[in-house]
Amino acid sequence: MASAKPSVGLLYNPAVPAVLDAAGTLVDHVEVIPDRLWYDFGTGAEHRFSHAHAAIAQLGRYAERHAVIGHGIGLSLPSAMPIDEELLDEVAASHRHFGYRWYSEHLSMFLAPGGAVPNAQAGMGLPVVHDAELLEIVGRKVELLQAVLGVPVALENGTIFSAVPSPEMSEPEFMNRLHAQTGCKMLLDLHNLYANMRNLNWSAPAYLDALDPEIVIEVHIAGGDKLRGHYTDSHSRRSPAVVWDWLAEWGPCFPNLSAITFEYHESYHKRIGAAGVIAELEKMQEVADDIASGREVGAELA
Amino acid sequence: MTLAQFQRALTDLTASPALCRAGRRDPDLLAQLYVLTPLEQARLGEIVASDGMEANCMIYRANRLAPIALNCPELCTALGDNLNRLVSAYWYAEPTTNVHFLVEAERFCSFLVEREDVPPAARDALSREHAKVRDRLAATGARAGEDAFAAARAMPPA
């Protein structure tokens, strides 16, 4: 039986060890992007995956004291193409090595069949068509992932700049139906939702009203930048006040919320500062305590 | 399967502001280039005309430029007005983004080394920062063929 308090953690990047060394007791879990643990030289290469041994060893030392969650960017489940089985094997091997509590990917398209952006893993997730055809494609891949990994699988809502018009269903409805069909959980990125509110005039309360609260297993928070009139999920700042308000208000409504993770990019470590990251962690711990206090003692979580 | 064509069209548009402009000028263009249903054609027409498409294009370029700008700042400065032309040529030649900044920066440097149209004034910066990137890449401990997960792979499936 797991603790009723959601765990608090950081998305692992090369700057995070300094934070862990300074304030490790504030960090319950580290979330790792497995795609950053190796250099992928592409299908057909003699040694396609060249492991980043130093990073793997370093993460291994922290994994002795912290839970590890896997958060992939490379499998691009919504792409209308077969799953990359070699990459899936590598993800599975990393899971066996670190023992992910669960594994998440994105409800965004990072790969396109034969397109000009065959592997835009630099963070350019493109919007998807929320319809029955995509539900079938994603559902099959989620079931495969669940079978291969043997742990829960979650999908994250993305930042969208150009929503696909005339969808058959809303994003929350898509997530709800995917969960009903496959058991797939949701990683609710509150900062992505905030960006979509700013860029697309989405109503965050309406989004949350439409979402089955039972499916949310993890929440992401982060900060971003303005770019020529658009707001980006650049992981470049501390989380904005609105995101904190949402976390405090909605966090207790998700009965299966098991983790809260702050994401930032190492290139902005200097701007945010170790003290800034630690301040985020302290606030996250406070919210996690508040959520725990509202739950029944002994409530079973993922 | 037209969804694959729709997705390909969207990614091609994201990588090419010129294709976006052409698609805005000629609403039938995308239907000539890709096999699309009328609904998909209408969706792409709205997307390409939206402000958000400009953001997609900018972020795609920013994401591809970031590894180069962060790891080769002197080279970028030395290239000056030639940077846009040369990174565009690089992205055309290497459409596959690599998630690893050092790998992406190393590939760009290697691409420039082979070209004759790099301004002589930028050659020193190229040589210096290319060597620095290669050293940093070597320091990551990536070794071809050495499996860090060998023991984990030998474990029984979950």
Spell out the blueprint of helices and strands.
The complex is a heterodimer of chains A (302) and B (158).
Chain A: E1 7-11, H1 16-23, E2 29-32, E3 38-40, E4 49-51, H2 53-63, E5 67-71, H3 85-98, E6 103-106, H4 132-149, E7 153-156, H5 171-182, E8 185-189, H6 190-200, H7 204-210, E9 216-221, E10 225-227, E11 230-232, H8 241-250, E12 259-262, H9 269-293
Parallel strand pairs in A: 1-2, 1-12, 2-5, 5-6, 6-7, 7-8, 8-9, 9-12
Antiparallel strand pairs in A: 3-4, 10-11
Helix pairs in contact in A: 4-5
Chain B: H1 2-15, H2 17-25, H3 29-33, H4 38-49, H5 51-71, H6 73-79, H7 82-93, H8 101-113, H9 120-139, H10 150-153
Helix pairs in contact in B: 1-2, 1-4, 5-8, 6-9, 8-9
The major beta sheet of chain A can be summarized as: 8 strands, parallel, barrel
State Rg of chain A.
18 Å
> Which pair of chains forms the biggest interface, and how many residues does each contribute?
A-B, 67 and 58 residues
Could you spell the SSE succession of chain A in H and E letters? EHEEEHEHEHEHEHHEEEHEH
What is the CATH domain class of chain A?
Answer: Alpha Beta
The residue fraction in helices of chain B comes out at over 70%
Biggest β-sheet: strands ordered side by side in the sheet of chain A: 1-2-5-6-7-8-9-12
Distance between the termini of chain A: 9 Å
Low-confidence stretches of chain B: none
Annotation field: number of helices of chain A: 9
Question: Which structural class is indicated by helix and strand composition of chain A?
Answer: alpha/beta
* Multimerization status: heterodimer
Overall average residue pLDDT of chain B? 90
Q: How many strands of chain B?
A: 0
Tell me the fraction of residues in β-strands of chain A, as a range. Answer: 15-25%
InterPro entries (chain A): MbnB/TglH/ChrH
Organism (chain A): Sphingomonas changbaiensis NBRC 104936
Pfam family, one (chain A): MbnB_TglH_ChrH
Protein name (chain A): DUF692 domain-containing protein
